[in-house]
């Protein structure tokens, strides 16, 4: 064989081998997160490909850039649709708790923030801060639950980021999200829509999430089978909007139902009158709150929202929520003119008490 041809053949083989090696997927060899996984090299690529892409890969993530590029026509139409955008961070401790985990919580929380604004959630961005030493088995469970929650809500995890911090400078994993949704042109929700005589609806029992997380921490000598209410509520919201004359909505997360109601009262200048006997709280959850001396009204929820609807559509609104799966939905109060900018609770004995904004944080790192 001509030495020149042999040289060319050898060079071709070498190049082919190089191409084959370069095209191999990166391998995740470790059992735990290391600082190298946040350094931007092969370990980082292996983390992204073998954990995140493997769990919720899609066409947008496959673009491989620092931003997901989406056609605007796919999100909005030419008839006045508006864009809603939300961002949030999740630092819950523990990261896994009865009824959910930090990943599922992050997706549901973002979807719900968009939904109660009247938006149809579309895209979510997810950023992880991982602590060195986090087990990949745990991380895989979290991202798998995120994919499941996203699929259930009908949203796409479009882009994201990952950073690693040294052991002892974080707490296993923190997650930050941003979400984008589309508000159809006919929807007008907001404080300014609320009117005297409107009814206030809650989609289900309150305080389950906060108490489930508290029980899971194991710091208290209390055991109770309480599970978080974490779920996406966009299906419930759509059922409600299609049936009732909805004025305003809010998911009652940090600060609980009391904080959401105070925010509305302050923004509208009207009175929010709640019926204590009509606010749903599960017996187990109420018992745990009583033992700890905590008012369920101030405990965080992650799959429960409040809505203000016109008085004449309240019954239909509750029926629609029941049909959509929110069995505990009910009318829990009404909007009045006086006392202005206040929340009043009517007790079971017929008396009243003021419900103020939360002071301090009796249940830190609930979400």
TrEMBL record:
Stretches assigned to the PurM-like N-terminal domain: 65-183
GO BP of this protein: protein maturation
Domain PurM-like C-terminal: 195-344
InterPro entries according to UniProt: HypE (IPR011854), PurM-like_C_dom (IPR010918), PurM-like_C_sf (IPR036676), PurM-like_N (IPR016188), PurM-like_N_sf (IPR036921)
Stored CDD domains: HypE
SUPFAM superfamilies: PurM C-terminal domain-like, PurM N-terminal domain-like
Family classification: Belongs to the HypE family.
Protein name stated in the entry: Hydrogenase isoenzymes formation protein HypE
Organism listed in the record: Corynebacterium kalinowskii
Classification of source organism: Bacteria, Bacillati, Actinomycetota, Actinomycetes, Mycobacteriales
Gene that this polypeptide is encoded by: hypE
